[in-house]
Amino acid sequence: MTATDHAVELVHTAARAASDKLAKQIIAFDVSDQLAITDAFLLASGGNERQVKAIVDEVEDKLREIGAKPIRREGLRDGRWVLIDYGDVVVHVQHEEERSFYALERLWRDCPAIDLPADVASHER
């Protein structure tokens, strides 16, 4: 099984939104073979709590524009690791320190990556 076209559309929209707010290390995984509850994960990082919140706001705004509403959101108050669950896609926006510590890429490395659009830039230092 692979991620649905709808899930990939959500990933692409969320990745563009994160890129617009200068997110770092933007990557997406097709987790549909590993998890029954979602098709894809999108990971993005911010350098501080304010940037994490700005990325989250932009992702939510852009996904709302295409009719997607989050089922739940966790972690926004702290701004260190925000999880936004859209059913088909779960977006993780992490502070760089949390990203390094929890290393979700390592956990999901056996899952295929989802190619992101060419206009998505990971804004590395």
TrEMBL record:
GO terms, biological process:
cytosolic ribosome assembly; negative regulation of ribosome biogenesis; negative regulation of translation
- Which GO molecular function annotations are given, in alphabetical order? ribosomal large subunit binding
Its localization reads: Cytoplasm
Keyword annotations of the record? Cytoplasm, Repressor, Translation regulation
Signal peptide span: none
Q: Which InterPro entries match?
A: Iojap/RsfS/C7orf30, NT_sf
Q: Which SUPFAM superfamilies match?
A: Nucleotidyltransferase (SSF81301)
Q: Which Pfam families match?
A: RsfS
Q: What does this protein do?
A: Functions as a ribosomal silencing factor. Interacts with ribosomal protein uL14 (rplN), blocking formation of intersubunit bridge B8. Prevents association of the 30S and 50S ribosomal subunits and the formation of functional ribosomes, thus repressing translation.
State the PANTHER family in the record. IOJAP SUPERFAMILY ORTHOLOG (PTHR21043), MITOCHONDRIAL ASSEMBLY OF RIBOSOMAL LARGE SUBUNIT PROTEIN 1 (PTHR21043:SF0)
Q: What protein name does the entry list?
A: Ribosomal silencing factor RsfS
Which gene holds the coding sequence for this protein? rsfS
